[in-house]
């Protein structure tokens, strides 16, 4: 997940040049190239913006890492915290502890709740809403692989049989993985139906 009125370019009328204007233009033409410094090029500005955004995501990850480290200490859980940036979001992963499954819960429900708490902690520190992704014991990574495989399998089956298939209800994160997998298969499309929390992906043959 917008002014003063302007004259459209195709309606602009060039004013007549007077004698005084001609003298001024001649003087301007004669001015040395370094008379006025050039502004930053769009490419440089865009690159600077990208660097600033990446720095912000790195900061989000560090704040989240500190918050989660304190949580692990309070719970007396072991775990290695890894920080990364994936596209437009910070990614924090916790792995290596024998008790971490308790922080995942049934179908990742505890993990989802903990992710929201971590995002709130980041938002409180930075003042900006966070889209940080938290993974524990590779639950999301493994889930991503399984859902991608499921999406491909269902898409190929629908293409062969011509019959639409509806999958089990999923979270927005899970549905996007399936949509991406289906999009890679020719002859089928996917769409979401229903309302949360029972919204699901439906795969349909197109030709």
Salient structural properties:
single chain, 207 residues, alpha+beta, GMP Synthetase, Chain A, domain 3, Ribosomal Protein S8, Chain: A, domain 1, 3-stranded mixed β-sheet, 3-stranded antiparallel β-sheet, 5 helices, 48% helix, 15% strand, disordered N terminus
Largest sheet: 3 strands, mixed
Count of domains:
2
User: Helices and strands: which structural class?
Assistant: alpha+beta
Please write the CATH class name of the largest domain: Alpha Beta
User: What's the gyration radius in Å?
Assistant: 27 Å
Number of helices: 5
Shape: globular
Q: What is the overall pLDDT average?
A: 84
Order of helices and strands: HHEEHEHEHEE
Q: What is the CATH topology of the largest domain?
A: GMP Synthetase, Chain A, domain 3
The CATH superfamily of the largest domain turns out to be K homology (KH) domain
CATH architecture of the largest domain: 2-Layer Sandwich
Low-confidence stretches: 1-37
Number of strands: 6
Separation of termini? Answer: 32 Å
Q: Work out the helicity level.
A: 40-55%
Percentage beta strand: 15-25%
Please state how the strands of the largest beta sheet are arranged side by side: 1-2-3
């Amino acid at each position: 997940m917008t002014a003063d009125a302007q004259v459209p370019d195709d309606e602009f009328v060039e004013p007549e040049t007077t004698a005084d204007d001609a003298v001024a233009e001649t003087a301007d033409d004669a001015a040395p190239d370094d008379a006025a410094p050039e502004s930053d090029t769009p490419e440089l500005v865009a690159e600077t913006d990208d660097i600033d955004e990446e720095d912000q995501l790195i900061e989000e990850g560090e704040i989240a890492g500190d918050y989660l480290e304190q949580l692990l200490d309070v719970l007396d859980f072991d775990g290695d915290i890894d920080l990364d940036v994936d596209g437009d979001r910070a990614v924090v992963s916790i792995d290596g502890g024998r008790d971490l499954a308790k922080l995942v819960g049934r179908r990742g429900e505890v993990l989802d709740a903990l992710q929201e708490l971590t995002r709130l902690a980041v938002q409180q520190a930075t003042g900006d809403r966070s889209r940080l992704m938290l993974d524990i014991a590779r639950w999301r990574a493994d889930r991503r692989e399984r859902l991608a495989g499921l999406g491909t399998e269902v898409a190929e089956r629908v293409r062969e049989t011509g019959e639409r298939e509806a999958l089990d209800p999923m979270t927005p994160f899970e549905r996007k993985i399936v949509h991406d997998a289906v999009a890679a298969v020719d002859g089928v499309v996917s769409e979401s139906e229903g309302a949360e929390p029972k919204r699901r992906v439906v795969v349909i043959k197109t030709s």
